[in-house]
Amino acid sequence: MNPTTNEIQSIAILPELILSVAGIVVMLADPFLGAKSNRRPLGYLALAGTVAALFATAMQRSSPGASYFRVIQVDDFSVFFHFVIIAITAVVTLSSLDYLEQQRIRAGEYYALLLFGTVGMCLMTSARELLMLFIALEISSIATYVLAGFRLRSAASAESSLKYFLLGSFATAFFLYGVALIYGATGTTNIPAIAAKLAEGSTTGLTVMALALMIVGMAFKISAAPFHVWTPDVYEGAPIPVVALMSTGPKAAAFALMLRVLFGAFGSLNEWWMPLIWVAAVLSMTLGNIGALMQNNVKRMLAYSSIAHAGYVLVAFAAQKEAGVSAAIFYTATYAAMNVGAFAVASYQAGEGERYVSIDDFAGLGRRSPVLATTLTIFMLSLIGIPLTGGFFAKFYVFKAALASDMIWLTVIGVANSAIAAYYYLRLIVVMYMKEGDESTPLLPVPVSVATGLLVAAGLTLYLGILPESTLDFAIKGARQLLLIH
Amino acid sequence: MVPVSYYLVLSAVLFTLGVAAFLFKRNIITIFMSIELMLNAVNLSFVAFANMHKDVSGHVFVFFVMVVAAAEAAVGLAIIIAIYRTRETLNVDRVNLLKL
């Protein structure tokens, strides 16, 4: 182990520091803007914070290792997820600027909460101590609970916030009970130390219980079936840019947490958790896709689709080994790019009071706003997994890893599910281009901020679909380091 | 001296009661309290294990759980007020605008 592990190296948490400071500055600046004035400058401030944090993350690559008394681990794995999460926040901020004006939400703390939530998500990916993981998980969750309720005049938004809060805390309690039991079984909460203890000792009932409880808690957070029931409701009521964040950021972080816990701490118990993950993967894919077929609300449809995509990532978990882990990491990044983009389109199309969110409201979008329609088509094709988009390679690597681990049935079910999923994604494209629009839905000139966000998301989706090698190499390095440390 | 297993059984019973209350109670405040009960059941486990291992990190964990629970309570009560404002009820069965 590196002799300087216990040193306090601020570079290890530099992105989080920058994001926190940006959040605090946003909070402090908020009262100086008049009550009636526009909160756009605060959004730009938040955006500057995320860009600075991205640079800080790039700097982190040159100083890997454990620090802060072996609580924080900087490696390619954490750096990869930092990039993904902070980029998500940047795009969400861009699509929030105009959304908040449209909905007449004048609150600077919205941006501050976005940044604080991001701090929690980032820490979730670099923590190697269960205490830190728990606190990071809560930082990210509490911020998103509040964000879900931000449409103050809407009863649906309050309800979404309540459901998210109650079920989220319920899940956290399960996770925490698991942590308590594993602490009881091994006498430590440090992930590598737990792994070492579990590898030498025999498996007891206590460790299996701990594992099961932690899996329940984590499955809630990634909305994997059978713990997915809250997802459509919460996504339907929350403000759309917040849904864009919730369905990608905390999820990416929760996947990172799950990778660290399952492969890091419980790596030696994989024959115990593998069947559970297998079942969760099949259920999530199937229930998610079948649920999505029946939706008319775009937010609900994308909510079910996010359940299905959690299932595909779990296929990669079940495949295990380096190939499986790197496929899961790559999938998370791709899913983030395409899903944030799809929600960015939806948030601008929704209009004041989120009136236009049913699939029929997208009719004629191809004529009304070619920019929105084209980018949304790219995202939908990528969600299906059409070649030349990131979604294709993401699915390809996942199923390749599953086949390499001799999981024929899982692969067959996964591929069949991708075929079912094509129906509802294509339906949206058909409605956009083939159906005549309602004349009363307003014409949409796309503002610069939304266009920038869409350009970034669509660019990344296509980039991952055409030149996936460098990103995949990065993911493989991250996977290797994750499996090696422990 | 009381054996550790007694504390663990008590903690498990409290946790189960919390889960049961979460699932069967209809008042939002009561549901919220059942989550607190679950967290405190976990705290009891932590303290018992910390005593068993003669290790402080379990105690430290409890402090952090309490801090987090306080933060959660602040946010949770604010959300409950928002619900009451828009709906004038605290019965979860009537908070059903979004189909579950």
Strand content of chain B: under 5%
Whole-number mean pLDDT of chain B = 91
Query: Biggest interface and its residues per chain?
Result: A-B, 39 and 43 residues
CATH level-two architecture of chain B: Orthogonal Bundle
Discrete helix count of chain B: 3
Which labels suit this protein?
heterodimer; A: 486 residues; mainly alpha; globular; B: 100 residues; Helix Hairpins; 78% helix; elongated
Provide a short characterization of the protein structure:
Chain A has 486 residues and is an all-alpha fold.
What does this structure look like?
The complex is a heterodimer of chains A (486) and B (100). With 486 residues, chain A is mostly helical. Chain A is 75% helix and 1% strand. Chain A has one domain (10-485). Chain B has helices spanning 4-24, 28-53, 57-87. Chain B has a single domain, classed as Helix Hairpins (Orthogonal Bundle), CATH 1.10.287.3510. The mean pLDDT of chain B is 91. The longest helix of chain B has 31 residues, at 57-87. Classes of the chains: A mainly alpha (486), B mainly alpha (100). Chain A binds chain B through residues 131, 134-135, 138, 142, 145-146, 149, 152, 154-156, 158-163, 165-166, 169-170, 173, 176-177, 179-181, 183-184, 187-189, 229-230, 232-233, 236-237, and chain B through 8, 15, 18, 22, 28, 31-32, 35, 38-39, 41-42, 45-46, 48-49, 52-53, 55, 57-58, 60-61, 64-65, 68, 71-72, 75-76, 78-80, 82-83, 85-87, 95, 97-100.
